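Exercise 7. Predict the structure of Oligosaccharide flippase family protein from Paenibacillus agricola.
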Amino acid sequence: MGSRNFVVHVILRMVAIFLVKLMGFFVRIPLFRALGPEGIGLYQMVYAFYGLMLTLITGGIPTALALSTAGDKQHGNRMMRRFSGYFILFGLVFSLLCYLLSDKIAHFMGNRDLEFALRCTAPAIAIVPLLSLLRGYLQGNERHGILAVSELIEQAVRISVLLILVLLWVHYGVSYAVGGAMLGAFSGATLALFFVLVLLNRGTASPKRFVGHKGIPDEMSIFFYASLTISATRLLIPFSDFLDAIIVPKRIQASGLSLVEATSMYGEISGMGSLVVYMPSLLTSAIAFALSTRLTSNWRSNQITAYQKHSILALEIAALWGVGATLIMIFHATDLSLIFYSTTAASKSIQYLCLAPLLCGIREMSTIILWASGQKKAPLIGLVLGISGSVLCNYFLIAIPGLSYTGTAMGILVLEAIAATWNLYMIKKGFSLGLGSILMKCMALTIFVLAEIWLFRIIFSNGDHRSFLQSTGEMTLLFTTVFLYLMYRFNRSRDSIS
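Solution. The predicted structure, encoded as tokens:
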């Protein structure tokens, strides 16, 4: 694929992910108004368990399949066919266990109101693993169009069913409404899976059928090694979310608050504030997702210079976008909370988590860079260290009266900071990252954004108060400025990505 086509595919991927994330983001507004902070807290706890189960079933196999297919299409086809049956079997087994043991799982998580929602989660656990596997195969073939459409179908159906069931079932109680929200995941995944299977059966994205290969044991062992290391890394994030869902509400209660208050506070931070601050990272996630196969291909074809230039550009984009997003979170936390939730309840958590877009973007980009060069253990070690620091912050700081908010936010940021720093250290051992140059560009962008804010507020000065239109206009201007600069840097360097 040429550089121009590659840029087109990256933009297509970015637009699709942006639309999917945007749809998921805006559905939280009516969801919050229907469920309230306590309901959002319950929803986050169930979703943390759901994410953990999916990661346990799929592991790193979809990602390993994408990287393997990028290097060898026939090998990827063989692996996809071999693992399809296993994913169906394990999905059904875990789904059945989730349904039968929902009461015990709810008790373990410390909230009996989760039982019905966990039962409603079981159908999605049976369907989504196979869908994830097929998407990994499509990614390896760089079939971004099919991926984009399938994700849009899944999200559109999920949101529609979610809203209908939440509004219908909220009259029976918050726990039933949360269960209805989880059924939306099953509905969306089912239609998306049907769409992908139809195209695969037509031969749209599938190479020739496998008829035999003498080196199957060797390639299987290599594939398993890659998937296990990626699996361990992928598992840590949902595992960390699951730990937070158990530890954070209990430690907040230890500070003197009730179960309802603890669940509400957890919902404000993890379900409202974190949703806003992680929203800008969808751009870096889209770029990282689209670049993963190209980085792997460059490394395997011994195009080291292109691989290094590509890696430096990716980190620069993550850093600059993260700095711009952080500044906007700092100056517009209250405005963002009002825009998306019609309340200032999330403004405090948005300010406390303002560094998340920067740290998360660098962590995701650096993880892809390390994976592409075969260093699959390095991100795993970084996440282990990060989660260890996060757990310590959550356990010791949250229980201190008056530090519940600070401790929870610190736990999230410490994980991201340690993991990102470790990844950069491991990359720097291989080649120079030009961190000084990236730092200078970040400082220049910071000065420019601050000057832009200052000039905007002087021009549209209105005493001590700013109108909603002025705040929205200022945020739009800042995001547009940073985004256009990033597109300029990406387009300028596209010839070095080929």
